[in-house]
Amino acid sequence: MNSAQRHEYLTALGLDAWVRRDQPAAALSSIRASTETSRELSTVTPLLAPVSPNTAREAGVDWPELRARVAACTRCALSATRTQTVFGVGNQQAEWLIVGEAPGAEEDRQGEPFVGRAGQLLNSMLRAIGLPREQVFIANVLKCRPPGNRDPAANESAECLPYLEQQIALLKPKIMLAVGRIAAQNLLRTDVTLGRLRQQVHRFGHSQVPLVVTYHPAYLLRTPGDKRKAWEDLKFAREVCANV
Ligand code: URA
């Protein structure tokens, strides 16, 4: 990626405020320098393994069959209120799996994750680390929209996670990026705060895929002051992926 493109993406992330008008190139290279610091990759004691009791139900299923099962799913009450399921989208050879919380109103309408304003910011965040949306796979903990965008209930997440686990088995990603507290806590089966889950390498499920946590783009739209921390998380995840 050339520096003009990088500048454009950083601008979309709201990080241009850090670029000195007199020395933009110098300021950008200092951002890059902090990207490439050889920080020790921290590992944490694995949290309670996120193994769903229903995992075996989807094991061995291929992409078309899995998609069909999700589309027909009535395992929880969200099936009664959804417009459609939101299976996930992206490259089936992707190295990166991005996991959000659940579809919102727009995602429920379009059948695709992260298509609203938060999705636009997610796309910019990914492009900033050289990953066009088309190059990753994007999914959610839940395949259906909770009414009023409330948090996923424990039974909804437990019923739905086996679909994500089978998506992971098929995709074999090098890294998972959990965006937001709800996604991170559901995937890692923990109530540890997002602030404490960031900047560490977790491992997901049976596959033990490295998992990194960052802020949800909808939160960043409300709290732009934390975009810089999200940028640090993305660089961290890129470093983890490069070392897998
Ligand atoms: N927020 C999410 O967590 N997922 C989406 O798909 C959209 C918004």
Question: Can you tell me about this structure?
Answer:
The protein starts with a helix and ends with a helix. The longest helix has 18 residues, at about 155-170. Helix 1 runs antiparallel to helix 6. It is an alpha/beta fold. Strand 5 (about 200-205) and strand 6 form a beta hairpin. The model is unreliable at about 15-45 and about 45-50 (pLDDT under 50). The radius of gyration is 18 Å and the shape is globular. It has helices at about 5-10, 25-35, 55-60, 65-70, 105-110, 115-130, 155-170, 180-190, 195, 215-220, 225-240; strands at about 90, 95-100, 135-140, 175-180, 200-205, 210-215. Strands 1-3-2-4-6-5 form a six-stranded mixed β-sheet, sandwiched between helices. It is built from eleven helices and six strands. About 45% of the residues lie in helices and about 10% in strands. Uracil binds near residues 104 and 118.
In brief:
By secondary structure, this protein is α/β, with parallel strands linked by helices. 43% of the residues lie in helices and 10% in strands.
